[in-house]
Write a structure and sequence with these properties.
The chain has a domain of 226 residues. Helices cover 61% and strands 2% of the residues. The protein has a two-stranded antiparallel sheet. It holds the Pfam family NADHdh.
Length: 449
């Protein structure tokens, strides 16, 4: 009797393995990915609430279902049954399309994420991946950029000042941190020699890129927190100054779609980090030496989701530990630190790769010299930033205007003149806090009389 070869014994077909599946296999894979993402979102919401509650010495959800596991489902039903309100000043068409634009790309990105090797899928040999392409990583970055437009358009179409400011912050955040994220991935392309996700996983069979390309890994982790609008980088929805940011005017299912998109994007950037830097679905070191079947069959799903949950725990840990950054600090981190360091690191990686292939220079001395240059670059950036701050604090470099009188409150926070009796700035000095308070009190007493 002829026995079919095991999946582990089959040669790696590469990109040729994709595009050969029958229609029912493709449809079943897509449905399974959708169901996994929905269930993963429900679990992540419960997981975040439980972990943050433990960090804050609270209990967290524990009533609905065992250990409170059905709390997320109850929250979803509650959101669906709430009143759906559309502001009169909103652009209704864009207002309704924005949550969909934010949610759909979050699902599409998972089409090129590899979950495992070639397996027997209901009698058909197929990889545990919906599809792949030579530029799969660029495809993921492009789809992620489309998802940001949902947030921007949602803030613009609401007809609210707070929502508009949240949308503008989101667009600036996208430009700033997607540049750093893309530059962090260039080093991965140089080492893997491909932009295909399955081939990048195969290139990490000996050593994960998270260790070889540690600066790229760190830059990507910082950028992915900013890309997903998560604390401490959740400036587009800052409750303290923007009420709720871009989704202030949303309710019911439309708000639930924004909520769903945020948590799916949380899992998406974690899956990308797992694929590009932590070996994807491959088992951690040492396990394959002890267990020969660790990287065959459906067992790689365990390693993939285990690494994924480590990143999700990191997101939750940051949210429960760090306060929200100031917006100028947030933009300075992206433009003044992450992007310059990324550019310097790409030059270093490209130099190391060329010399490694040609083998003309000692790599040890080269790596040491590049490390010293990177450290000096970072130190000079911090020193220059401190110099700018000290110069601004002491008033150096500010041109003195002879025509304008000296203002005693120029370095502080003066209260602007009140319309009732305050003089214009050009005629007199601005009112102090005590003077403005006296003016407001007198006006209130006059109105009361």
């Amino acid at each position: 009797m002829h026995l079919a070869p095991l999946a582990a014994d089959l040669p790696d077909p590469g990109l040729a393995a994709f595009g050969q599946d029958p229609w029912w296999v493709i449809l079943l894979k897509a449905v399974l990915i959708f169901l996994v993402l929905v269930l993963l979102t429900l679990f992540n919401i419960w997981f975040e609430r439980r972990v943050v509650a433990r960090m804050q010495h609270r209990v967290g959800p524990n009533v609905h279902g065992p250990f409170g596991l059905l709390q997320s489902l109850a929250d979803g039903v509650k959101l669906a049954l709430k009143e759906d309100i559309i502001p009169k000043s909103a652009d209704k068409v864009v207002f309704l399309l924005a949550p969909i634009i934010a949610t759909v790309p979050a699902f599409i990105t998972w089409a090129v994420i590899p979950f495992g090797p070639v397996v027997n899928f209901f009698g058909h040999e197929t990889p545990l991946q919906l599809t792949d392409m030579p530029v799969a990583v660029l495809f993921m970055l492009a789809i992620a950029s489309i998802g940001i437009y949902g947030i921007v358009l949602g803030g613009w179409s609401s007809g609210s000042t707070y929502s508009l400011l949240g949308g503008l912050r989101s667009s600036a955040q996208m430009i700033s941190y997607e540049v750093a994220m893309g530059l962090a991935l260039v080093a991965v392309f140089l080492y893997a020699g491909s932009m295909s996700t399955s081939e990048i996983v195969a290139a990490q069979d000996r050593l994960w890129f998270g260790l070889i390309l540690l600066p790229s890994f760190v830059i990507y982790m910082i950028s992915m927190v900013g890309e997903t609008n998560r604390a401490p980088f959740d400036l587009p929805e800052a409750e303290g100054e923007l009420v709720g940011g871009f989704h202030t005017e949303y309710s019911s299912l439309k708000f639930a779609l924004f909520f769903l998109a945020e948590y799916i994007n949380l899992a998406t950037v974690s899956a990308i980090a797992t694929t590009l830097f932590l070996g994807g679905w491959a088992a951690p070191w040492g396990i394959e030496n002890v267990w020969e079947g660790a990287n065959s069959g459906y067992w790689p799903l365990l390693w993939f989701f285990g690494k994924l949950f480590c990143f999700i725990f990191l997101f939750v840990w940051l949210r429960g530990s760090l306060p929200r950054m100031r917006y100028d600090q947030f933009m300075a981190l992206g433009w003044k630190i992450l992007i310059p360091v990324s550019l310097a690191w790409i030059v270093a990686v490209a130099t190391i790769r060329v010399i490694s292939l040609e083998g003309n220079i000692n790599r040890t001395y080269l790596v040491a010299a590049i490390a010293v240059l990177l450290v000096l670059t970072v130190v000079l950036m911090f020193v220059g930033d401190k110099g700018e701050k000290s110069g601004a604090a002491t008033g150096e470099g500010a041109p003195a205007e002879a025509d304008e009188p000296h203002d005693a409150y120029a370095g502080g926070f003066p209260v602007p003149p009140m319309p009732a009796g305050g003089a214009v700035r050009g005629g007199a000095a601005p009112l102090t806090f005590a003077q403005s308070r006296t003016t407001v009190t007198a006006a209130a007493e006059e109105n009361h009389e």
